[in-house]
Each structure stands twice: as C-alpha cells, then as structure tokens.
Write a structure and sequence with these properties.
Distance between the termini: 60 Å
Number of strands: 0
Structural class: mainly alpha
Helix content: over 70%
Low-confidence stretches: none
Order of helices and strands: HHHHH
Oligomer: single chain
Number of domains: 1
Mean pLDDT: 84
Strand content: under 5%
Largest sheet: none
C-alpha cells in the first residue's frame, strides 16, 4: 500500500504539472492537486516503514477523502456557474479539479481494499497459544492445594 500512496501522490503532482503546461493563464485551482499530492506522497514514503504503515496510509486516505469531498463540491458549484458562459480557463480548471477528484476517489478505493486484505490476513493468521505460567514463590497457596500436593509426594 505504501507504493500505491507514492504513485497516487506523483499522479496528483502530475495533474498540476499538466495544468501548468496546458494553458498559459495560471489560476490557484491548478495547484489544488499538488496540495493534496505532496502530503499523500509523504505519507506513502513514511508507510515504507512497516511499523508506521497503517497510520500513514490511514492519514493518506483521510487526505484523499478530504480532497475528493472538496473537489466534488468545487466541481458542482463551478459547473453550474460556467455552464452557460465560461472562459476556456474556467473549463480547463474544472477538468483538472474533476480529474483530481476522480484520482482521490480511486486512491480511497485502493486503500479500502488494502485495509480489508490486511484485516483478512490478520484474522487468518493462527493465534499463538497462551503463555504457560509456572507457579512462583509469590503465589498464594491455599490449604487445600497444599494438602493435595502433600498427598502426591
């Protein structure tokens, strides 16, 4: 799952690069995908450590969920705003945000599938037997158990 986070972080950064190259007018909406891609990329790199994998990927999934929700709201609001008369820059920005939303939703789907597989593997793993505890001197011995031990001896 760590590699998935790295790949999707790079894809989101690539969307920003495509937005910057695609049209000469620069708008702040062209950078939204990178604002999500960099933290997801960092979480993917942190998730390469097996001890931090679950937390890092959960954090990356939360960032992607936030990005998908914000992108969906932004897209629907601006879709109606530029439906009749919108400039080419507005339409291009709308496409970038819609693509960012789709990539974030796809990443969330991959994370959910990965978390389910991890849970199934953990459930299938045989549980170790409980540790055997030997009696020690600090254990309280009752009179009945003391008598039964004398009978055996």
């Amino acid at each position: 799952m760590a590699r998935t986070g790295i790949i999707f972080g790079l894809i989101l950064c690539g969307i920003t690069f495509a937005g910057l190259v695609g049209i000469p007018v620069k708008t702040p909406t062209q950078f939204y995908a990178m604002m999500l891609g960099i933290p997801i990329l960092i979480c993917g790199v942190v998730a390469l450590n097996p001890h931090r994998r679950r937390v890092a990927m959960a954090c990356a999934a939360a960032i992607a969920l936030l990005g998908a929700a914000a992108g969906a709201i932004w897209s629907t609001v601006h879709l109606f705003a530029i439906a009749g008369s919108g400039t080419e820059t507005d339409r291009y920005s709308l496409r970038l945000i819609a693509l960012m939303t789709a990539v974030c939703l796809l990443f969330i789907a991959f994370c959910v599938i990965g978390f389910r597989k991890l849970k199934q593997r953990r459930e299938r793993r045989p549980q170790p037997p409980p540790p055997v505890r030997l009696p020690s001197h600090s254990d309280k011995i009752s009179a009945e158990s003391d008598a039964s031990s004398r009978e055996i001896v």
